[in-house]
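To whoever is covering the structure queue this week,

Two jobs came back overnight. Logging them here so there's a record in the thread.

Job A:
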Amino acid sequence: MDMDNNTWSMPRIGDKAPEFRAMTTHGKLNFPSDYAGKWKILFSHPADFTPVCTTEFLAFAKMQKEFEALNTQIVGLSVDSLSSHIAWVRNIEEKIEWDGAKNVEIGFPIIVDLSKKVSTLYGMIMPGESNNACVRAVFFIDPADKIRAIIYYPLNLGRNFDEIKRVIVGLQTSDAHEVAMPANWQPGKDVVLHYPVTTDDAKARVAEEGVTCHEWYLCSKKL
């Protein structure tokens, strides 16, 4: 916290995820310690009972098992009350049909943040967009509780959930194989090798089986 300006700065990639305690639709939460050993997606939405947010919750619910298979816990947040969260979740589950999603279960917790403590801690409220609602932030946090990626969307633009899954798969693949992902990478496509540190590294890559070098600094391979 900047004590002179009395403002919070946004956590950055590579930082430890800020810790907090909060009430959710699933009970009390100690974050991120309650999800030790898991990847975490912490996301904020502007408000319950709003159109874009409703479509996003349906999208997350449809894909929840896919994220569970990736050892990833989803956690939502807005500055609404617990009763509002619960009523909205029931309304979505019982009455809303969108893009092939119907009678889905919202199986992940939603944080109650009436005080704006958590949303301020994570830099989710941007006064230029709104003083009273969170923007659509997405924090990707690894099993060591380190922030690995952050995506921000404005109030009027719904998130791309295929991209959110792609980020998780890409980060996990990079960690497992010590590689990087090129532009527009999708799971199953070629990955790229990290920048060579020495000339010997560059020469070794050219000779490595299964590696295609397009230039000395740009080499790709299939996993």
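Job B:
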Amino acid sequence: MKVVSVNISLQKGTVKQPVEEINLYEKGVLGDAHSGNWHRMVSLLGTESFRKFEKDAGRQLAYGEFAENITTEGMILYEMAPFDQLHLGDTVLEVTQIGKKCHGSGCAIYNEVGNCVMPKEGIFARVLNGGVVKAGDLITYHPKVFRVMVITLSDRASSGEYEDLSGPEIQKQLIPFFELNRWQVNFEAQLIPDDPEQLKKLLTKAKTEKFDMVFTTGGTGIGPRDFTPEVAKEFLDKEIPGIMEAIRLKYGIEKPNALLSRGVAGLMGETFVYVLPGSLRAIKEYMGEILKTLRHLLFMLNGIDNH
């Protein structure tokens, strides 16, 4: 993949003009109207989208005509996903949004061109590492790979008395979520006895190695070997109590025993931690609710306000 044009405009909603080079800094493109402290500071559009639109429009289009800062060639950009990275030499961009809302006749580009391909096929990014970009520069694509640790705590399962079903079920529930968002994921599964010291070591590992998520299953009751919530809370920097309270209330109305679970959720550094019960049925219930908010939480954590 390579850069075929770099473009700047002084006002939002107008076409951009090709320039010899652009300077990317922490707020976007120096001198461009879209630079600022937000998640859409740099826009990109592929010539693959240009060619399709030229055919529909019946005329040749100029680079920058759809207000893209960087025109690329060699990859279908809109098939990427948020948090993927594009490296242009030492310059690093992080994808933050695919497409945008079209403003129709309220946009100068729409009025001048007659339509706009950016809302469907353009992508937006923020600058992680600045530098100069110009036509001809090569681009390498680095998809985001989420790292998820799943920890099952069970004396009997870890000793081989029975098969661990809860840990694999968590992974099973998560896979469609990542696939739907076009995100790659690597799981690390751990099966340990009900041992607080072993749990602490794994949580320390997850925090040090910057895992994106940790899910534990087991040890949320009130028995003498149930300690998972207490250990997890020692590592949390921010607790997210609402999700677990809502789950307990939802299922506790019909099954009062569900109110006795002491599951917790929160943030450990930049790692989400979910402490779930040990039963297979509970895993399905809890994951069904957790997945409804997980995408939004990931964007919140990364400072992306695209909702």
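Note for Job B: The chain has nine helices and 17 strands.

Please reply-all if you pick these up so we don't duplicate work.
Q.
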